Amino acid sequence: MNGFDFILAGTLAAATPMLLAALGELVVERSGVLNLGLEGLMAVGAALAFITVYSYDSHAMGFAVAAFGGAALSMVFAAVVLGFAANQVAAGLAIGVLGLGLSSLIGKKFESLTITGLPKLSLPLLSDLPFVGPLFTQDIVVWLTALLAVAIWGVLNHSKLGLIIRAVGENPHAARAIGFPVLRVRCAAIGFGGAMAGVAGAYAATVYTPLWADGMIAGRGWIALALVVFGTWQTGRVVFGALLFGALSLGELAAQAAGIGLPSQVLASIPYAVTILMLAVISSNRRRMRLNTIASLGQPFER
Fold first, then answer.
1. Is residue 297 part of a domain?
2. 162, exposed or middle or buried, with CB in 10 Å at 0-12, 13-18, 19+?
3. Residue 214 Rama label (left phi>0; alpha psi -120 to 50; beta)
4. Structural domains of the chain, count
5. Is residue 262 situated within a structural domain?
6. Which phi and psi angles does 7 have, rounded to 5°?
7. pTM for this structure?
8. Cα Rg, the chain, nearest whole Å
9. What's 194's domain CATH number?
10. What is the C-alpha separation between 103 and 291, in angstroms, rounded?
11. What domain range is 164 assigned to?
């Protein structure tokens, strides 16, 4: 497999953990809440999923436990920021640190152990196409993530539920005045985002790299947060950003395999540097940022 085929075949899988977490955070931020604890939520999901799959040899159970764990930890965040109107930035950072600590604690006995990942599924006819064929041979979670992205786009933009979430995010006091339960909507959005982050961690630990190592999330939660801003809170742009970062991260591995004469540390930093550059470029367009930014993002709601 040449470098191009390697990047093409692996881009979707590399993007999936970040995309899952970013889609969940997109819903959370659309409701007006900023959760900076994705890194910790993903780490907890990764640890719980790996332990479950290693113990019971069931990926489905592993993903379910990870989703529950991520949602449960996110409810701690919800209780603090919704129940006590605490600062969302500080609370999110605290949850992130808590999650990283919990993942290290519960995963300590499983350090460096491995499990079997999921088999690849090829789409008939499409996987046989020249040049782009490898793109259509992926595991089931990748295909489900693609469908989920379409579903979230449809819900947020073309459903009553999406209208309620967006209304709560734009003007929670006006939304409450017309009868929308602001705190319940935000709590549900936070729970959904936490579950998605847990599933993202589960994919990273049990499918993409089926082993447990402390710190294996390696900044993917922060990249997912950046992708939401990169995509200016639009589902399609968030998907594009995740694919771009996934391709860049694999490009670094392909460059090392090809023997390009650059230090590995420099090659490993390229995806992050490009992410920062893209964020700077997008943020410079003040009109687009003002048009899409959620008006009450990060602001506590008090009756």
1. no
2. middle
3. beta
4. 1
5. yes
6. -70, -45
7. 0.92
8. 19
9. 1.10.3470
10. 38
11. 3-292
